[in-house]
Write a structure and sequence with these properties.
With 698 residues, the protein is an alpha/beta fold. The radius of gyration is 34 Å and the shape is flat. It is 29% helix and 20% strand.
């Protein structure tokens, strides 16, 4: 282990000796590691051990130094201790946090995840007024193969010189993603743009001015005199009798200049760009999107755990409803959901609201994320830190905001990130949920704060709020007073500064003992481990169960019980076959309906499937060990076959069947009696009865 720290020209009050004791290595003080003391960096990277450099400001310079240093083979990682705490007003008390950040940087890299590959040949579709579309195309056509689409007449004049293929009409659909967009449009323009020579004779001939230099006819202004047709006798490009046709074409990229985007979802597909702000960076990104591109496959899906549907009956659809990229769809026929990895943007919201853990996040995986949080909290505690707050933020806007706050603190314009607030960077803030939040409380965190900026879709905020509400009610129900979980909405450093100060000053109740369990790959297992620890060290348990809010799966409680109306239930066991979580069980020896509460995900499939409407959901957290044991919800006396005396059903079920079928003409006399027989005896009786007609008698 090699760690290099720098107080950045003595602007941070670092304590190398104290940090070194926690890290288990001597730490040399530096003030200009990126300049005068760069030799120490070059010496360190000549080894084979991972080198952690406590600076992100000069990452590029250090990388260049590494390439220029002979024998530099050590892996190098960079961690920010400056804006995250070293520049705060209470920086002198931030050594435990800095030690935690350094320790987390030394963790091994997570195992690589599967990737998704896009292939783009550079076929670009630009949608919008011709003059604007041609101006954009002129900045891209040296790299990309451009086609223009004019969606309506009268929206800009095209150039006389035809430089790009132009199509026009009404867009019927635009679907797909990078490398595989499909445009379908209806061509109603009387002017065939392929035949049109742009001689402008029709424009001059039209007395209503219904034809512009985009060479489309505005049919609302056209009175039908057809002077334009007469002016185009040689080219024959104008035909008002031409029937509208539907056409389709494929593209790799789309640049949409329209006021109303073709994709209105919060997270449009990769390869689709809008340019209403005229930001040059958009065109630069487009120019780079030719070739093959890999991105992580952000999720794993286990259909066997999915509570979406059984027997084409829909239960949980939390992931379908929350996805801002519309990457998840229902496939009730096959009892599953379908996730398009090409549309998935990696927000992880689906995994957060998934009650069963059928969808799990892989970037990083649950185990790797848990290890990082546990390392941060354990190191912070060993260094003497108290009341740790984990600040979960995105790698994009969230990180930018924290760095801006750090700079403001250095200039005396803000307090900065408090000493007990530990920033944790995530690909997306919606990717963690109650399993990791409650685990972090068990590992020693006093609070969890999730920083929301303007990146998150509205449904993400709703989902996070619901999940936090359930987790907070669980903690308070166990006697952990105070507020442990927070959503911080901030878009500027001043707002973030205020929010963090309020959070840092709180000290809610936490377990007296720190948990030692490791995060399991399965969400439900991790959640169970966290709850076991929190229940074991609960300050107060006034009731045997904590009532939790009921709601749609993903917004309501992810665990609970079911109530069975014993008078209505006939023990048909339809609910057992519908349960995706193995929470409901039968008994092969006796007519019993059994239930394991810790397995229940409150998906509601049992309630919807029950033909007697005898089941109701009871969202709660049972605090006793009984939640992990099978309990009998209903049982009945077995009904015995009247012929062989074998038990084959319940007395109540057979009575109900006899009552419902007794008046039917097909179930009279001996036929009604056969309903009281087991399957084997029923067949024997039919073939041995002299009253039954046989096919051989015909």
């Amino acid at each position: 282990m090699t760690t290099l720290i720098c107080d950045c020209n003595r602007t941070m009050p670092l304590a190398p000796d104290a940090l070194g004791r926690v890290m288990g290595e001597p730490l040399a003080p530096h003030s200009l590691l990126c300049r005068r003391e760069a030799g120490d960096y070059q010496q360190a990277i000549r080894g084979t051990d991972t080198v952690v450099v406590a600076c992100t400001q000069e990452t590029r310079l250090f990388e260049e130094l590494g390439r220029a240093t002979e024998g530099a083979v050590a892996p190098v990682r960079f961690v920010n201790i400056r804006e995250t705490g070293g520049w705060s007003r209470d920086a002198r008390h931030a050594m435990p946090k800095i030690a935690a950040l350094l320790a987390a940087a030394h963790l091994p890299e997570p195992e690589p995840v599967a990737t998704v590959t896009y292939r783009s040949a550079g076929r670009l579709l630009i949608i919008g007024p011709l003059d604007q579309a041609e101006a954009a195309a002129a900045m891209l056509d040296d790299v990309l193969e451009v086609t223009l689409f004019a969606p309506a007449p009268g929206q800009g004049a095209g150039r006389q010189t035809r430089r790009y293929p132009v199509i026009a009409g009404a867009i019927e659909s635009l679907t797909g993603r990078l490398g595989a967009f499909e445009l379908t449009w209806s061509q109603r323009n009387p002017i065939d743009l392929d035949l049109c020579t742009r001689c402008n004779a029709c424009v001059a001939a039209c007395p209503e001015g219904a034809i512009g230099l985009d060479y489309q006819v505005d049919l609302n202004r056209c009175t039908g005199h057809r002077d334009c047709t007469a002016s185009c006798t040689v080219a024959g490009a104008i035909d008002f009798q031409r029937s509208p046709i539907t056409a389709a074409e494929s593209f790799d990229l789309v640049l949409d200049l329209g006021e109303q985007p073709q994709f209105v979802r919060h997270a449009p597909p990769q390869g689709y760009f809008t340019w209403r702000d005229r930001n040059p960076a958009t065109l630069l990104r487009l120019r780079e999107m030719v070739g093959e591109f890999d991105k992580p496959k952000f999720f794993d899906y286990k259909q066997s755990l999915c509570a979406h549907s059984r027997n084409e009956m829909e239960g949980c659809r939390a992931c379908v409803d929350i996805c801002s990229a519309q990457a998840i769809s229902s496939d009730k026929h096959h009892q599953r959901i379908v996730v398009d990895p090409y549309l998935c943007v990696g927000c992880g919201a689906c995994t957060t609201v998934c009650p069963s853990g059928a969808l799990s996040y892989t970037y990083p995986r649950n185990g790797d994320q848990g290890l990082k949080l546990r390392t941060l909290l354990n190191t912070y505690s060993r260094a003497g830190g108290k009341d740790a707050v984990l600040l979960l933020h995105s790698q994009q806007a969230g990180q930018d905001l924290i760095e801006a706050l750090g700079r403001a603190a250095q200039l005396g314009q803000a307090s900065g990130v408090p000493a007990n607030v530990i920033p944790v960077s995530l690909w997306h803030t919606a990717s963690t949920g109650p399993d990791l939040w409650l685990s972090a409380i068990a590992w020693g965190a006093s609070q969890i704060a999730v920083l929301l900026t303007d990146e998150e879709a509205p449904q993400y905020q709703e989902g996070l709020k619901a999940q936090m509400g359930i987790a907070q009610e669980t903690l308070n129900g166990l006697g952990y007073t105070g507020h442990h979980l927070h959503l911080l909405n901030a878009t500027d450093p001043a707002a973030l500064d205020r929010e963090l100060r309020l959070v840092a000053e709180r000290a809610p109740a936490v377990p007296n003992e720190t948990a030692r369990f490791a995060t399991a790959p399965e969400k439900r297992t991790t959640l169970s481990l966290a709850l076991d620890h929190l229940i074991a060290w609960a300050p107060a348990r006034e009731a045997e169960a904590i009532a939790l809010p009921q709601g749609a799966p993903g917004l309501g409680a992810p665990f609970g019980a079911i109530a069975v109306n014993k008078d209505a239930c006939t023990l048909c066991m339809s609910c057992v076959s519908a349960c995706p979580a193995n929470a409901l069980k039968d008994n092969s020896q006796l007519p019993q309906l059994r239930f394991i509460e810790s397995n229940c995900v409150q998906c509601g499939l049992c309630e919807k499937t029950c033909p007697e409407d005898a089941i109701a959901l009871v969202p709660r957290l049972l605090l006793s060990d009984q939640r992990k044991q099978a309990v009998v919800l209903n049982e009945a006396q077995p009904f015995h076959c009247i012929r062989c005396n074998k038990a084959f059903g319940t007395q109540k079920g057979v009575d109900a069947m006899l009552q419902r079928l007794g008046g039917h003409s097909m179930f009279q006399g001996a036929a009604l009696e056969r309903l009281k027989m087991c399957g084997d005896c029923r067949v024997i009786d039919m073939y041995s009865s002299s009253d039954e007609a046989r096919i051989t008698d015909l």
